[in-house]
Structures are given as structure tokens and as C-alpha cells.
């Protein structure tokens, strides 16, 4: 790199706009994620859950799916990758904390007091669209 010149980011065009290629990848990822969430929603509804919210957004961040199963609120994070194992590796401790904070924020916004029974599931979606649900992936299951 020549002295006195700032490095050029591959992520953005001058002025901060994303490159057309990056914008296209973002659109594909958005559509792919929405399709995975649709697939997971249908599967959960088939198991008797009611989907209360999709892509619910609060101060803590976004929760992919919020469902009701009996007296239990189920917060579902959808992870998509080539394999279920790779998808599972994409959920880290920081995301778990964000989901937990978001769940408490959701309950507050809905007037749930005292806190209802809650469970945190992860839905793993592979490149073929197959879904594996990990119930109570990072908490205790509902009674």
C-alpha cells in the first residue's frame, strides 16, 4: 500500500454505500432467511404451537419467532447453514444473551407479570431446507 493513502474497503463504496455485489448477497441472505423462518413456522404450527410474532424487534435486538405452546412462551432462533452442525456453531453466547434480554423485553411489552414459563429453542436449517429443532437449547425446559 502506498504511503498516505487510506485502504479501500471491499465492503463499501465511496460514501459508505455497499457495493452492488454485497447488496445482492444481502438480498439473497434476507430471502433465504425468511424462507427458512417460514419453513420452521409451518413445522412448529404442525406441532401445535401458535406463532405469536415473527422477526420481533426490541431494544435488545431481533427474535426470529415467538410462539406459544400451552402456557409456555417459546423463543426460537433460526440458524441456517450448509449443515445442521455448521448452523449450530453459529449461535454464540452473545446471541444467547441478546435473545434472553429480548425475551424479557417482549414479556414486559405484552404485560406478562409475573414472568410466564419460557423456553429457548434453536431451529437448525441445512442447505436442503431440512429442519432440526433443539428444544430448550440454552435454558431449562418448560414444566
Automatic annotation (TrEMBL):
Residues 1-25 are annotated as: Disordered. It holds the Pfam family UPF0102. It comes from the Bacteria. Belongs to the UPF0102 family. PANTHER family: UPF0102 PROTEIN YRAN (PTHR34039:SF1). This is UPF0102 protein ACFOD7_17250. It comes from Paracoccus fontiphilus.
